Each structure stands twice: as C-alpha cells, then as structure tokens.
Amino acid sequence: MTTPRTTRLSRDTRESARGIPDATVARLPVYLRALTELAERGVATVSSEELAVAAGVNSAKLRKDLSHLGSYGTRGVGYEVEYLVYQISRELGLTQDWRVVIIGVGNLGHALANYGGFASRGFTVVALLDADPDVVGEHVAGLRVRSVDDLEDVVSGDDVSIGVLATPGPAAQDLCDRLVAVGITSVLNFAPVVLAVPDSVDVRKVDLSTELQILAFHEQRKAARVAVHAAGLAAADEDAAPVRTRVAR
Amino acid sequence: MTTPRTTRLSRDTRESARGIPDATVARLPVYLRALTELAERGVATVSSEELAVAAGVNSAKLRKDLSHLGSYGTRGVGYEVEYLVYQISRELGLTQDWRVVIIGVGNLGHALANYGGFASRGFTVVALLDADPDVVGEHVAGLRVRSVDDLEDVVSGDDVSIGVLATPGPAAQDLCDRLVAVGITSVLNFAPVVLAVPDSVDVRKVDLSTELQILAFHEQRKAARVAVHAAGLAAADEDAAPVRTRVAR
DNA sequence: GTGACTTTGTGCGTGCGTTCACAAGTTCGT
DNA sequence: ACGAACTTGTGAACGCACGCACAAAGTCAC
C-alpha cells in the first residue's frame, strides 16, 4: 500500500518470464526480515504457518508468494531458512550493491543517512547533497555533505542507480528532473509532491502526513460508530436525511 | 502499494452507508494536497482531468473516488476547489484536532517532531517520549522530551488518540502493547517489526528499507531486460527453450 | 514397506479496484 | 431558444488479489 501506495510501477503489465505480482514483491522484504531474524536465532527450518505469523500475513498467501520464486520448500517439512533468505535476496536484487544518493540533509536526511537498515541490505549511500551552504561541508554518517551543484558529477561519475529525495516540496521536482537527466531510473521520494517522471523511471513515495490522515479517517469512523451505537438508530436516521439535501447542493 | 501497504484496516468489510473503499481513502490525502496548492494559487475551479494530473492518477478513478463522498461537482464546469477541500477534510476527520504522541526521539523522531506537515493538518504533537536518559529533558520542537516511563500518564491524562513509534525494532512491540493498554487505537509504526495488536487497533507501517528493496527489484528487472535486448534474440531463444517451462510454468 | 501425519503448492471461487464509455447535466455562442 | 462543446457521475466489463480447501509429496514410527 501501501500502501502506501505505489506510483507507476506496472507500466508493463504483461506477465513476463519471471513475472512476480507487484503485491508479492511488496511483501518479500517483510518475509526477508522475518527470515533474517529467525536465522539469527539459529532456526534452521520454518513452516509457512510460522513464517506467516511472523510476517503478519495469511499462510496461504505466503505460500503463493513464495511459489512465484520457485519451489523452494519441502512438503511435510517447511522451508530452509538460510536458503530462502538467499533466494529472496537474489530475487530482490540484494546480492548486488546498490549505490544511493540522498538529496536534502535536513532532519529527515540526517535520519536516512544514519539509518542502519540501508547499509545492512546492500545499499550504499555514496553521497549526501544539500542546497544550504551552511549544511554543505558538514560531516554526516561519515560523509561530507556536498552541494547540490555537484549532483551531475556525483551521479554520473559514480555508478549511482537510486536517488532519495528528502527535500522540501518545492525543490523536489527540479532535482528529480536533474536526477532523471543524468540517468537515474529509481527515485524514493519523501517530499510532499507528486513527481512527474518518464515511464521508464520508477518512483515510490513515502508521505508521513498522508499516513496520519489515513489513520485519522479510521479513527474518526471508529468514534462515529461508537456514537451511533450509543445514540441508537434514530439519531443515525436524522443524520442520513440531510445528507440527501446536500447531494442537490 | 501502496505499497507500504496496510495492516488490517478492513476488519469490517460490510459496505456501510458512507462506506468509502480503502483504496479511495488512501488517495484522498493526495487530492487534498493538490487542491490546497490550487487554492493557494487562487484557482477557484478545477476539472477532474486537471486535478487527476496534479494528483498523478487517472481522471475516471478520481471522479469515482470523489463520487463516494457525494456529488460535489458541477457537470460542464468541474469542482469548486475550496468546497472540495472542505469536504475531503471533513471526510478524513481533519476538521478536528488529533493529539499525537511520538515515542522515540532519535534521528527519525527529531525529523517527525519538526515536520511541518503534521501541525498544518490538524495534528498536534502533545508529547515526545524516549527511553534514553540523555535525551530525556532535551527540548525538541518546543517540547521537553519526557521519559517513556510517563507513557501511561501522558496518554491517559491528555486525550491522545494516535501513537507514533519511531524506536528501534526490539522496543516497539512492548511500547505498542502499553499504548494499546492505555486506549490508543491508531498506531503509525516506523520500527522495522510487524506489530501484533488487537483487531480494534489500526496500525500503519512505514518502512524505509522495504521501499528501497522494492525499488531495487524493479531496477534489477530493468537491467535484466536491457541485457536480454542487448544480447539479441538468439540468446533470448536459448533462454526461452529450457524455460518452455516459462510458458507452461 | 506401510500407514498415519505433516506441510507445500495450487486450482478455483469470490470480491475489490480500475478503466472504459456513455448518458445526463451545464455553459456558451449565436 | 437552440445546438455545440464540455464535464460529471456511473453502469458494466475486466483483471488482479485473496483465501479456501485439497491433492501431491515428503517424513516418521514401527
């Protein structure tokens, strides 16, 4: 979701050779994390039911997801943890190192640069860029912050494939355009804007404010339901009637 | 998706009177943001097509989404921006103030506490909690960081309805349990763990590492496709033959 | 080797979400 | 007043995803 959810990731809906459904891909990292934990605890084998509980999904769904990667389980036994970790990692492309550039070293950029989860999974932050001259030159997470003016140099020179935008909203589209122009094809966007990119570029958006608003909606609905129950059905009818007038405006 | 997807938000699938599909709810904040921008630019009226472009969705989908809220458009004209902003805000529950507590004031917690998008949309951070004695007592975003020991006091005393977990993974489940115990029914989880909660509690998870891994998958697939094309169809056929399984699977 | 037991892999029905395409309603020019 | 142009709201078709339920395949005890 997704959702949070996704932006333009299914430009090619044709079921390709190893066509793994997007919904499955989105869950693989969760499985991977659960499996890694199991491995660290020394667990050698796991059933779909156990893993499903750990990942917070239905066991049938888990099995179907894994079946898209191949038949890596053993009936009557389960899945070998280490082996499955490797297979999922390979499928996700985590057996190679991905070079990442983070643009925007404010509060969020700091957090991202220091986030251990990146480095631990084959992602290497190769550069931090910021537009603020006061920030440029600072050392964050072992890297010297460089100016956004160097964007083209950094991305072209080094073999960077993923750009992370942690800037204020207004700056994001321009920087995104520049990233795309230098050949970046994957962008993780934390700025509160909808980025326009060519079809060949994948964008995923993470929006804190959006998530809170979705929670607020459900929270409100829960509160309303309780209120209706408390007030009885008569009150609910009163509410429903005026809504019809509102349709006519 | 997206994507960052959702955890157990459809416990009650029954299409209620105002039953708005989850997929629609997830997009309303995006529409709201686009509309707010238009309003600030002084735009009075917008067509579904224009708004759809601004929000990065299909115009038919946009119209269907909005139709779930009621008939707020005018045929031949479009939607009145201010009015639509109000209607969506009301539907999302943003006309009331939601009180939020942030737990974990590390890099990410700092970023969250200082994030303008919260306050601007009816969310008030009423407390920051941390387990680290060195952090407790610091002032962040105009609030004094308090100890997690005060969690129960803070949440019960004040009328807090949403908890944000920005702690390391291992601490999250315990803190979540305590939040639930004191009556919190909505949790936004940044910790890299799958939280176990009662059905009555909504959890949304934001996972930076997951997002990057999904991007890596697509990036890898793009690279693979290019490689096949570059190698020519002969090579592709060689591949295809053994993978006749590819067709029949 | 055989039968009881466990667990995977998947065919199938169902429901949700997306998109098309068009009727219904509104404005504008003449 | 009327027709052309526009735009919303929605019926209907389609496709994807989920989850049930079971056959296939393996293990274990004896």
Q: How would you sum up the global shape of chain A?
A: globular
Largest sheet properties of chain A: 7 strands, mixed
Task: Note the run of SSEs of chain A as H and E.
Answer: EHEHHEEHEHHEEEEHEHEEHH
Q: What average pLDDT do the residues of chain A reach?
A: 87
Helix content of chain A: 40-55%
Structural class of chain A: alpha/beta
Low-pLDDT residue spans of chain A: 1-17, 236-249
Which pair of protein chains has the largest interface, and what are the residue counts? A-B, 78 and 74 residues
What gyration radius of chain A follows from the Cα positions, in whole Å? 23 Å
| Percent of residues in beta strands of chain A | 15-25%
Spatial arrangement of strands, main beta sheet of chain A:
1-12-11-10-5-6-9
Number of helices of chain A: 10
Alpha carbon gap, first and last residue of chain A: 34 Å
Number of beta strands of chain A:
12
| Oligomeric state as shown | homodimer
